[in-house]
């Protein structure tokens, strides 16, 4: 889609602040972002990436989208492991309910072998 519209991708990795294993999650996020960048490069799509630690992922996502003047937010719907969903509600629900920017929700494509190879056999 970005190729068709000549868009610039802003990849935002939002991790829960203060959770155990922050560096492990950050490493996984950097690995995934690297894979996205490689795919974007193959399609000649420009992109930038940023990782932020926060207590409220949806607020941080919306603030970032507003800051960069995003036309569309694309979010993965796989948020099962998020601790704050117990307290604050589901990330995707908050995102879609509070965003003035259109939100496209997509499920992640999971290939266990590719993930295992990319992150050196760490559990995903």
What this model shows, in words?
There is one protein chain. With 124 residues, the chain is of the alpha/beta class. The protein has a single domain, classed as Rossmann fold (3-Layer(aba) Sandwich). Helix content is 45%, strand content 19%. It is built from 6 helices and 4 strands. Helix 3 packs across helix 5. The model is unreliable at 81-85 (pLDDT under 50).
Biggest sheet layout:
2 strands, parallel
What percent of residues adopt helix (DSSP H or I)?
40-55%
Query: What is the number of strand segments?
Result: 4
Number of helices: 6
Strand order of the largest sheet: 1-2
Give the tally of structural domains: 1
Q: Could you spell the SSE succession in H and E letters?
A: HEHEHEHHEH
Secondary structure class reads: alpha/beta
CATH class type: Alpha Beta
Low-confidence stretches: 81-85
The CATH topology is given as Rossmann fold
Shape: globular
The Cα radius of gyration reads 15 Å
What is the level-2 CATH architecture name? 3-Layer(aba) Sandwich
- Give the CA-CA distance, first to last residue: 27 Å
Mean pLDDT: 81
